[in-house]
Structure formats: structure tokens, C-alpha cells
Amino acid sequence: MQENINTQLLDKELEKLKAIGLKELSKTTKLASSKIEDVLEKRFDKIDSVRAKGFIAILEREYNVDLRDWILAKEQLQKNNVGSVAEVISKQDQEERSQKLIENVAIVREKEEERKKDLQKEREHHVIEIALKNESKSKSHAESYSWLYIILGIVFLALMGYFAYKAFMQDNSIPPIPPTSQTSTGTQNESNDGYDGVFFDATKPLDNIPTQNTQEVQSQDVPLESTSKDSMSQALAPQNTTTQTQETYQSSHPEQNFFFNPKPSQTDSQADSQKKPSDNILYIQAQQDLWLGVINLETGSKEQFAYKNSYEIPLNNKMLFVMGHSAFKLTLNGEEVAHGSKHPVRMYFDGSSLVDVNYTRFKQLNGGLEW
Questions:
Q1: Is 223 inside any structural domain?
Q2: Which of 273, 295, 312 is the last residue of a domain?
């Protein structure tokens, strides 16, 4: 069929028609110019076979041209298209078969996995049943041991109560030991620890001290030989002891002598009170255990303190503080510092004052870090 098609002759005849023009062809044949253009350009898929034969016959009759090869070329193209369609259909059938095969394999695998899961569940149920049985047995053993522990605890508490009662009775049965001379003891304590002017009243005369000591010595229930000798010597020479004690403290602690130099003592106490508010130590007193974090901005060091309810922090550099809660009181240089009630509390010491800061300001001061 392909050997009978003379494409050169067909192209030559179509060129003649193209030279005439679409408008003239449409005017003469009364055909649509679009259909004539499809014939001239060999657009076989745009025109069906029946109409194509009619258009070709009209053009051959009007212009005396041979367009038989045009029909043959269209028929050959249709046959080739049919063959390609068959190939496409066969390929689609093969793809569908392979897809079904894959689906069947997937179904088989799913069934196999479900079967394995069912077996695994059965095994787990079996293990759980065995564990429950063992747990019931262990509970019975634990209950028996718990009763034993309770009995042992009761026995232990009874023994502790008995020994406590016995110790209490022994303490009550021991006669009180007569106290030694308070004058010598007071003098020794003053020489060792130093007199701080808290436990004595400067308004009372000095003569009452030895008299009181003498009365206490005479009121002892069980006098001892050594004690009586010390008491007698102290009763005979109270003025000497008092004089020596005063001279000792005048030489060692002149600022603490309330009896002979009351005015300097008051001056020193005022100086101490003036020094204390400017000690630059932050005192924290919390109502409950408080977590405290301290950041030294100049050295870059960071410290976290254990849970306590009181702290004393020396303020040497610019510092940041973080408190776990707000139930606490701050005291700096003798003045109470106010703080926020949010949790946690963040504060900043700029070298002279302690102020409350928010989260954003805290991060800015800490170089963008939360801690």
C-alpha cells in the first residue's frame, strides 16, 4: 500500500491549490476555509474519512487535480494508529497484571504479618498471666514480711520508750551538784571570751556582786571542801577580785568597760552601729527553704546555693540574683529592700543599690543568657 502512494505528486498538486489561495478555493467550492486548510496541510486527524473523500472529490472536479494519494496516506496513518493503540492496550494489560501480582503479594505479606502479630499477642498474654500468678504469690510473701516488720517496729518502739523512761528516772534520782563559785567562773569566762557589755547592768552598784556570790555560796545544800574554801576566800576578798577583774578589762578591752568608762562605751557602740549599716552585705531571710543563684558580672562566675532559709552575700562587684520564690526579706546596709512577688525574683546590684529587674532586663545584663 505504501509503494502506491506518490508523495511527490501529492505535494505538487497541493502546492497548486495553495497558490490559488484559501479565499478563492472557499469561494469556488463553497467549503469552509478551515477544512480546505486541513486538506492542504495534510491534517489527517482533523477530518474524518467520509468528509475527506467528499472534499477531495470537489477539489479534483473544480481544479482538475489528482488527490487520490491523500486518501491513501490517511488510511495508512489510521492503520499505524490502530497498531500503536493495540500496543498501548497490550502494555496496559501487562501493567495491570503486574500491579495485581504486586497487590496479591502485598496481601499475602499483610496476612503473614497479622498472623505473626496474633502469635506475639498470644505469647504476651501468656507471659502476663504467668507474671500475675507470680505477683499474687509475691504479694502474699510481702504481706507476711510486712506483718513481721510491723511487729519488729512495735518491739523497737517499746524498747526505746523503756530506755527513755529509765534514763528520765535516773536523771531525776541524781541529787543536784552544788555550783562552784560564780565569781571565779565569771572572771575566767571574761578573761577567755571577752566582755561584751550585754549580760550586766551598769546601773547596779558593784557591792551587790560579791554579796550575791556570798549568799549563793551559803545557800548550797551539799558543800564540798574545795568549794567551801574557794567561797570563803572569795567572800573575804570580794573587793580585790573585782578590782583585778576591772583592771584586766580596762587594759585589754577598754571599749567594753561599762563600769568605769560608760561614755566611751556608748561612743564605741554608736560607731559600731554606724559601721554596721554600710557593711555592703546582703542579708536574706526566707520563710521557707530558698534556692539562690548568684552571677558576678565582672568576673563572669555563677554560683547556685543549696536550699536554706538564710543567706549572707557580700556585694563586692556588679551582681545578678535569682530567687526561687518571693517569700523572703532582703536587708542591705540596715535597710529593707523591696522586691517583686513573681516567681522567680530577679534582682540587680549596680555597685551602690539593689533593684528589682524583669526577665528582659535580666537577659540584657547577663549577655542574652537566661542563666
A1: yes
A2: 273
The number of C-alpha atoms within 13 Å of 148 and in the hemisphere containing its C-beta is 6
79-126 tens-digit pLDDT? 877 755 566 677 777 788 888 889 899 999 999 999 999 989 888 888
Q: Coil, strand or helix: which one is 240?
A: helix
Contact 199, 216 (CB under 8 A): no
The length of the chain in residues reads 371
Instruction: Quote the pTM value.
Output: 0.29
Q: Is it the case that residue 214 has pLDDT exceeding 60?
A: no
Place of cell 557591792: 207
Q: Which domain holds residue 247?
A: 182-273
pLDDT tops 60 at residue 363: yes
**Residue 326 shares a structural domain with residue 357:** yes
Task: Count the neighbouring beta carbons within 10 Å of the beta carbon of residue 245.
Answer: 18
What does the alpha-carbon distance between residue 156 and residue 163 come to, in Å, rounded to a whole number? 11
245 and 298 share a domain? no
- Among the candidates 273, 290, 315, a domain finishes at 273
Name 346's Cβ contacts closer than 8 Å, sequence gap at least 6: 320, 321, 322, 323, 356, 357, 358, 359, 362
